[in-house]
Amino acid sequence: MKHKSRRVSLSLRLNLLVIAIIFVLAGGLTFIAYNINGERVDRYYKQTTSYDAGTVAAFLDGDWFARFLDTIRSEEYQALRARAIEAQDEEMIRDYLTANGWYDGYRENCRILSDFRDRLGALYVYTVTLEGGDGFTVIDPDEDLLYIGTRIPVPPEFAHIKKGERIEPTVSVTESGWLCSAYENVVDRSGESVCQVGVDIDMTDVKAEHRQFLYHMVSFAAVLLVGAVAACMLLMHRMAIKPLAMLSEATVGFAARGEGFTKDEIIDLPITANNEIGDLYQVIRSMQGRIVEYLENLTRVTAEKERISTELNVATQIQADMLPRIFPPFPERHDFDIYATMNPAKEVGGDFYDFFLIDEDHLGLVMADVSGKGVPAALFMVIAKTLIKNRAMMGGGPAEILRYVNEQLCEGNEAELFVTVWLAIVELSTGKGLAANAGHEHPAIRRGDGQYELVVYRHSPAVATMEGLKFREHSFELHPGDSLFVYTDGVAEATDASNELFGTDRMLASLNRNSDAEPKQLLVNVKEDLDRFVGSAPQFDDITMLCMHYNGPEVKDP
Amino acid sequence: MLNIIKNKDGSSLNIALEGRLDTTTAPELETELKAALPETTSLVMDFEKLEYISSAGLRVLLSAQKLMNKQGEMKLIHVNDVINEIFEVTGFSDILNIE
């Protein structure tokens, strides 16, 4: 079975496409906006934190820190600190600092750092040394005294930093949440870096807010998506799908009607859009207009054809009526039997036969075929038939008659039609006859109980071919029991489906199938054989036959 | 099924016919002749390969013969037996110039 592609409605396709596009667009935009916003917040915090660290550093006395650092790095202090940690005794450190005159300075710096911490809203503010891979905590207001001078591992990201070099602020996640960390160098009087002050600002809330921003963006995008899709669908439906469906329905209705269109049948829809659909609508309208016009024209032409056909039927009837068709034609005469038929190929034909008594003793026989077919041939046939009979009734031999008819027909014969004629006049009392053959088929004759045979002789040209023609005439004799059969080329030249001719041999065989038959039966036999031979092939030419059986002079009762 | 092979040389025209010259094909020949004959004084028709001629075909030949009688000459050559018999029977051999 042939696979038919699945029908997917246009609107569904378009909507899916719109959804996909908006989805990608909104997703992309949200992602970009989220990142830009995040970076902006980070940058702002780094800047602020860095600035804060600078402010704190400026308040610290670098010279004091330089000396204090020397002290807490000393082996003496470190040893004391180790003992104090072991004993968990903060007092030992305080005593040491007091004894060496550091405690007041320590207190003072603690106060400065915690002050800043509170005012800046920072999480931690403290001092450390980081450079050179040898880190120590210095002062942290959030730690106790034991904290001072703790050796700390320097994080790898700071290991490469040289003394006095600026440290870039960072944003990172620690166990206490999101932090923005910045360091600033504390410098002594000569501008040398002594240690760093660190400021950590809590970004947990900010980050939460940032995530909140993402949620807002996503939900906004979702609302936008739904709204846009709905709007698109609505617009698409109104602008494209609905008019197209309307057009489709209207044209289907138009196409389903087989005939009988009028101008009112042309689709009339409320489509005014000046776009492709409007164009399509206009094109369909004008196309339908032309179809209606064409059909009206066709109807008119068909009506005209029917009228002509009717007239042709009448013409056929008139033509048929012109040929003697009542058999037996001379019921009171027993010296001859005669029968004839004509089957036209088209409505009106160019073949004709005729027979008439010129006087009590003379019978005129005519078999003729006008060249061409249809109405012109039929009209020509009417004139020819009338002229032949009228002239024959005036007396004279066949040659003389045909010569006269030829002259008459040649006058104003613009259509250049001509007619082949076999004309014979038989003296019924003796059986003697005279015949002229103007280009017509060979007649067939049967002598007594014999077979039908063709009588072949040289013919004269057809009548109406050329002015001044003379026609040959020959005499023949019929004996009682003889039969004459004449026909037109429609018999001999009937063709079957494979273009083979029926031919005179088949015709003779047909005649001799039952050569004793009456003239009427004889013609029926030939026609039967002819129809069987031709089969379904169309009839090209008129088929006309005439048979005359001569019985001999009537024996008059005394 | 008629092939009309025309060969024109100035005012002389040579036409060879192949196939059947009958009711269906006679109008083709008539059209060809109508177009060519006004400037022809010598018309030669070769019937060597003509298989059949009907009364419609004879009419076209007759028209041509009548016209050529006025303005020059017309002759038929290589007329085969089949066609010649038709000419004989129809009496056209009296009218046409057959070589």
Descriptive terms for the model:
heterodimer; A: 558 residues; alpha+beta; Beta-Lactamase; Phosphatase 2c, domain 1; five-stranded antiparallel beta sheet; 18% strand; B: 99 residues; alpha/beta; Transcription Regulator spoIIAA; 4 strands; 38% helix
Under CATH at level 1, the class of the largest domain in chain A stands as Alpha Beta
Structural class designation of chain B: alpha/beta
Q: What is the C-alpha radius of gyration of chain B, as a whole number of Å?
A: 12 Å
Question: What is the end-to-end distance of chain A?
Answer: 93 Å
Describe the main β-sheet of chain A briefly: 6 strands, antiparallel
CATH topology of the largest domain in chain A: Phosphatase 2c, domain 1
The CATH homologous superfamily of chain B: STAS domain
Overall tally of structural domains of chain B: 1
Q: Within the largest sheet of chain B, what's the order of strands?
A: 1-2-3-4
Number of helices of chain B: 3
Mean pLDDT of chain B: 88
The residue fraction in helices of chain B comes out at 25-40%
Strand-helix topology:
The complex is a heterodimer of chains A (558) and B (99).
Chain A: H1 10-59, H2 62-73, H3 75-87, H4 90-99, H5 103-120, E1 124-129, E2 135-137, E3 151-152, E4 170-174, E5 177-187, E6 193-202, H6 204-256, H7 276-322, E7 336-343, E8 351-359, E9 362-370, H8 374-393, H9 398-410, E10 419-427, E11 432-438, E12 444-446, E13 452-454, E14 474-477, E15 483-487, H10 489-492, H11 503-513, H12 519-534, E16 543-550
Antiparallel strand pairs in A: 1-2, 1-6, 2-3, 4-5, 5-6, 7-16, 8-9, 9-10, 10-11, 11-14, 12-13, 12-15, 15-16
Helix pairs in contact in A: 1-6, 3-4, 6-7, 8-9, 11-12
Chain B: E1 2-9, E2 12-21, H1 26-36, E3 42-53, H2 55-71, E4 73-77, H3 81-90
Parallel strand pairs in B: 2-3, 3-4
Antiparallel strand pairs in B: 1-2
Helix pairs in contact in B: 1-2
